[in-house]
């Protein structure tokens, strides 16, 4: 499969009607960017496991937050967060993990005004990708955690591919028929491929990496390969290449 084949795949299948089932479908419900960025972070954080259960868990959390996740965070103290999500379970994540994560998001929003502004603060002019900024963003979130949110929020410094965090960035920075976008301070050219086992196997078959682990170094390697095809948008084909692993063959 060459660049022309990938572009043909994108033009044919990069459509919103092919999104479901996916946690991204929950993000479309928020026209206000200040609500959408919080909903998207929640949806991406819970995006592991069986897709039907993922969507169910994301809906449960967002329903608890009401029509405006931003207002919910602004008006919720830590005790309120723990009480609201008491009893929640999504695979390895408990309500305490969710509450801790939301407390981190609340702290960031209270300080910077939005998640976008906070992320932009960690972006260096010489950074080739947003990987360093992502590490800075997670470190800033950690300042407000009452306890560790577990694997809901990956730590880039540990070498994780940070698939769900880079997925969140893809949703917020890109804007097309699938990705809703909304962030205006960042550029798609610096995004990193959200790498999971399925995407790793696909990219190995495409000859984009010969590394043996699906970690951050491999994600950067693959992103560099896609950037040779589409310098301005290296994650352009992420949706269409991963969709068959969720929905089955096109």
TrEMBL record:
Alphabetical list of Pfam families matching this protein: DUF2400
Name of this chain's protein: Uncharacterized protein (TIGR02757 family)
């Amino acid at each position: 499969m060459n660049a022309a084949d990938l572009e043909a795949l994108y033009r044919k299948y990069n459509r919103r009607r092919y999104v479901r089932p996916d946690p991204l479908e929950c993000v479309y419900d928020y026209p206000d960017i200040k609500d959408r960025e919080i909903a998207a972070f929640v949806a991406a954080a819970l995006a592991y496991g069986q897709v039907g259960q993922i969507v169910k868990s994301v809906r449960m959390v967002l329903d608890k937050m009401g029509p405006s996740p931003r207002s919910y965070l602004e008006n919720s103290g830590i005790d309120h967060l723990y009480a609201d999500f008491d009893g929640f379970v999504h695979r390895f994540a408990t309500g305490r993990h969710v509450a801790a994560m939301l407390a981190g998001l609340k702290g960031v929003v209270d300080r910077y005004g939005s998640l976008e502004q906070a992320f932009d603060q960690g972006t260096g002019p010489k950074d080739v990708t947003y990987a360093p900024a992502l590490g800075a963003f997670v470190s800033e979130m950690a300042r407000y955690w009452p306890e560790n949110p577990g694997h809901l929020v990956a730590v880039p410094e540990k070498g994780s591919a940070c698939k769900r965090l880079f997925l969140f960035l893809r949703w917020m920075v890109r804007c097309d028929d699938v990705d809703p976008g909304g962030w205006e301070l960042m550029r798609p050219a610096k995004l990193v491929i959200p790498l999971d086992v399925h995407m790793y196997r696909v990219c190995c078959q495409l000859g984009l990496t010969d590394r043996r682990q699906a970690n951050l170094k491999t994600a950067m390697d693959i992103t560099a390969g896609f950037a040779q095809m589409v310098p301005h948008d290296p994650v352009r084909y992420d949706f269409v290449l991963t969709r068959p692993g969720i929905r089955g063959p096109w």
